[in-house]
Design a protein that fits this description.
Elements (H helix, E strand, L loop, with lengths): L2 E3 L2 E5 L9 E5 L17 E3 L10 H18 L12 E3 L1 H4 L3 H15 L11 E3 L2 H15 L13 E5 L3 E7 L9 E6 L2 E11 L3 H17 L13 E5 L7 E6 L23 E7 L3 H12 L31 E5 H8 L8 H13 L2 H4 L12 H15 L7 E3 L6 H18 L13 H22 L14 E2 L41 E2 L2 E2 L8 E2 L12 E5 L7 E4 L15 E2 L7 H13 L3
Parallel strand pairs: 5-6, 7-14, 11-13, 14-15
Antiparallel strand pairs: 1-4, 2-3, 7-8, 8-10, 9-10, 9-17, 12-13, 16-22, 18-19, 20-21
Helix pairs in contact: 1-3, 4-11, 5-6, 6-10, 8-10
Keywords: ATP-binding, Hydrolase, Membrane, Nucleotide-binding, Transmembrane, Transmembrane helix
GO molecular function: ATP binding; nucleoside diphosphate phosphatase activity
GO biological process, one term: nucleoside diphosphate catabolic process
Length: 603
């Protein structure tokens, strides 16, 4: 639905009750704000989305170049070469066939690689709906100062409404073994998440579904002839103001197009769909009813026929867990609230009232009543849509939701994770992990130096370097006579490098378990083997190891585990190899004789 660029600033920040040694915020948070533009976010955006630009080289360059130029203006010139640039494609590109999506990524790389920023080809990729949901949850709870804090705080669920899809993520005490369950470790805290994406439920896709439903209802079986009519067919829409008339391209209205959501499809026009002329025919009751049809999955899928929205959440498939807990509604929800100048305390009934008032205005009056911005005509539909989506589609009540700010988007979660990896690599602290800094760093350094000195003294005392003043006289130690040896006197001295059996051992050395993980450590890889985000299905929870005494986990910031059963050990001779020959009952003569005999031995 659009291509956007966000700029974030990451820096090292140690806090007493936080296990995250980095902080991330929007670069422009503290900068002077220009005159409002109507945009809900502090970002740069081009339209259309790159999924509409397949095989359109000039169009793709025209979509990406302005974003790069805008980012260059926000970032100091001396920081350009050290600033990482990522391009993550979401629902629009996910629906494309593999050939088309690969073309987009390859050609996007050819544009971005010429920028002054640091970028790698594998940083340009498509992320799954689950990843997008996970990033949104990270962003929300990081922004709410909940992640990595001690003592642990309850997390919020995230409802992230985009242009094409809705991401649902929440924490659950139940470890349900489904494809939607994630096991996540952040700092020293474990989280059991449920995350899934509802394709086709984004704001722009929802409006497209409303047009497709009206198109099918109006033209029925003759819809296939629409492309041959010679001119765009007019279609009345109850959620458009009186006096509105504009061309609209319906991607679901073409011949042979299915209305099912979540399908990968590309029309004969390369994704453009069927051209129509939308005409405003405002009717608030019909608009509300149309929004409910768009929300009801049974209208768009043969897998869930005849769902009653009053009985079951009708936007969810049978195998998807129902959302519960307290949620922050972000992204598209925030956009709608902001459009109607509603505060975060406003209810869904307030949204509906604002939407009804907006729909009553003539189009020429309505578009002048707000700051110029995209999709002004769709907000008459968006008001009842988000209310129906939450209440009927997900069965979430007003008291379960809070409206997040415009700075909370899933991109903040990506920035946090990538900054963590850069921090680990740049400072060479891969094994340092998300160490919980509850002590002053200077004290920590002092403790490490003191431990190093003690270790050196210990090694010195074991060897010949021990000062004579500290030495004590001991009786000689003899091997038993029945042990074959080239020498009667065979002293086995412990060495920090040799165990006596040819193996190398170091004293008290910690064992590093497994590959390095993430501050948001999980198990299954998202596809980035360089230390990227990983997810674990709930059926693959790591089993508790009886030998682990401490664990600091973090993918971006490293993972270190100290295993008390595997720590380096001192070598000691077998009890049968040595025996002290002096005894309390031994006579002075026997002792002298033994010593004399020892001097006769040639070592």
């Amino acid at each position: 639905t659009g291509t956007r660029v966000y700029v974030y600033n990451a820096y090292v920040q140690f806090k007493r009750h936080s296990s995250l040694p980095i902080a991330v915020k929007s670069l422009r948070d503290g900068l002077h704000r220009k005159k409002p533009t109507g945009r809900a976010y502090d970002r740069m955006e081009t339209e259309p989305g790159i999924d509409k630009l397949v095989y359109n080289v000039s169009g793709l360059r025209g979509a990406l170049k302005p974003l790069v130029r805008w980012a260059k203006k926000q970032i100091p010139v001396h920081s350009h070469k050290s600033t990482s640039l990522f391009l993550y494609a979401t629902a629009g590109v996910r629906r494309l066939p593999r050939k088309e999506s690969k073309w987009l990524l390859d050609n996007a790389w050819s544009v971005i690689k010429d920028s002054p920023f640091l970028c790698k080809k594998d940083w340009i990729k498509i992320i799954s709906g689950t990843e997008e949901a996970y990033f949104g949850w990270i962003s929300l709870n990081y922004h709410s100062h909940i992640l990595g804090v001690s003592p642990r705080k309850a997390t919020y669920g995230a409802l992230d409404l985009g242009g094409s899809s809705l991401q649902v993520t929440f924490e659950s005490d139940q470890q349900v073994n489904t494809e939607t369950s994630l096991y996540v470790r952040i700092g020293s805290v474990n989280h059991h998440l449920t995350a899934y994406s509802l394709e086709g439920y984004g704001l722009n896709e929802a409006f497209g579904k409303s047009v497709a439903h009206l198109f099918k209802k109006e033209f029925g079986s003759s819809a296939a002839d629409a492309d041959m009519a010679g001119k765009d067919r007019e279609l009345k829409h109850p959620c458009l103001q009186s006096g509105y008339k504009a061309r609209y391209v319906c991607p679901r209205c073409g011949k042979g197009e299915s209305l099912s959501v979540g399908e990968k499809r590309l029309s004969k026009q390369g994704g453009s769909g069927t051209p129509l002329m939308l005409v405003g025919a405002p009717n608030w009751q019909q608009c509300n009813a149309l929004a409910k049809v768009v929300v009801n999955l049974s209208e768009w899928s043969n897998l869930s026929p005849g769902l009653d929205c009053g009985v079951t959440p009708c936007a969810l498939r049978d195998n998807l867990p129902r959302p519960y807990g307290h949620f922050y509604v972000i992204s598209g929800f925030y956009v709608v609230y902001r459009f109607f100048n509603l505060s975060s305390e406003a209810t869904l009934d307030d949204v509906l009232k604002k939407g009804e008032d907006f729909c009553k205005k003539r189009w020429d009056v309505a578009k002048k009543s707000v700051v110029p911005q995209p999709f002004i005509e769709q907000y008459c539909f968006r008001a009842p849509y988000i209310a129906s989506l939450l209440r009927e589609g997900l069965h979430i009540n007003d008291n379960q939701i809070s409206v997040g700010s415009g700075s909370i988007t899933w991109t903040l979660g990506v920035a946090l994770l990538e900054a963590g990896k850069a921090y680990s690599t740049g400072f060479g602290l891969r094994n340092f992990g998300v160490l919980q800094m509850k002590i002053n760093p200077l004290i920590l350094i002092g403790i490490l130096l003191f431990s190093f000195i003690v270790l050196l003294c210990a090694l010195s005392c074991v060897g010949n370097g021990m000062p004579r003043f500290f030495r004590r006289q001991h009786l000689p130690i003899f091997r038993q006579n029945n042990v074959s040896s080239a020498s009667v006197l065979n002293f086995q001295r412990w060495s920090p490098m040799s165990s006596g059996d040819g193996k190398i051992k170091m004293p008290l050395s910690p064992t590093v378990a497994g590959p390095y993980g993430s501050p948001f450590s999980t198990g299954h890889d998202f596809g980035d083997n360089s230390g990227g985000i990983q997810l674990v299905e709930s059926s693959l929870y790591p089993s508790a190891s009886s030998g682990v005494s401490h664990s600091y986990s973090s993918n971006s910031l490293g993972q270190m585990q100290f295993d008390s059963s595997n720590t380096g050990t001192f070598w000691s001779p077998h009890r049968s190899q040595m025996r002290l020959q002096s005894r309390r009952s031994q006579s002075r003569e026997d002792l002298n004789s033994s010593v004399a005999e020892a001097h006769l031995v040639k070592v």
